[in-house]
Amino acid sequence: GNLAEMLFMLLLEHGVLVMRPSIVRHMDSVIDMLICSSVVSSLSFLGVIAIDRYITIFYALRYHSIMTLQRAVVTMASVWLASTVSSTVLITYYRSNTILLCLIGFFLFMLVLMLVLYIHMFALARHHLHSISSQQKPPTAHRGGSLKGA
């Protein structure tokens, strides 16, 4: 995204491309929207991956009935659509403080969501580690390595 924008600007500055200022502003907005959309979709997909892993661990026996191919496709399409729409709104109203607060709020929400899910998964792994080690008769020296696996 940034590389395309930089190349576009260099071509304009050196006279290789000649365009009206209104078209240049429009192209700049489109490139900004693509960059913003990729950031929003990347954060969203990181959240979706965390949710998928959570379902895999806590609902392992029902995972394939919960996460069907149709739900996966709908989820991916929804993330792309929401990212495109939200980035268009963000770029259109980028001077608004409300938009900036929404973007910061979205980032913090995704961060907290991922932290909570991964901490919960790690706690379950530690619980299983302690359960397994308490069933073993002699304490083993591999406990530190097992914690890495958790």
Automatic annotation (TrEMBL):
The keyword Transmembrane helix is annotated on this UniProt entry: yes
InterPro entries this protein is in?
Answer: GPCR_Rhodpsn, GPCR_Rhodpsn_7TM, Melcrt_ACTH_rcpt, MSH_rcpt
Q: Where, per UniProt, does this protein localize?
A: Cell membrane
Q: Where are the transmembrane segments?
A: 30-51, 72-92, 98-119
Q: Which UniProt keywords are present, listed alphabetically?
A: Cell membrane, G-protein coupled receptor, Glycoprotein, Membrane, Receptor, Transducer, Transmembrane, Transmembrane helix
Q: Name one Pfam family in it.
A: 7tm_1
Query: What are its GO cellular component terms?
Result: plasma membrane
G-protein coupled receptors family 1 profile domain: from which residue to which, for each copy?
A: 41-150
Kindly give the membrane topology term recorded for this protein. Answer: Multi-pass membrane protein
| GO MF assignments | melanocyte-stimulating hormone receptor activity
PROSITE patterns xrefs: G_PROTEIN_RECEP_F1_1, G_PROTEIN_RECEP_F1_2
Q: Which family is annotated?
A: Belongs to the G-protein coupled receptor 1 family.
Name the job this protein performs. Answer: Receptor for MSH (alpha, beta and gamma) and ACTH. The activity of this receptor is mediated by G proteins which activate adenylate cyclase.
Output this protein's name. Melanocyte-stimulating hormone receptor
Taxonomic source organism = Phylloscopus fuscatus
Q: Give the gene name.
A: MC1R
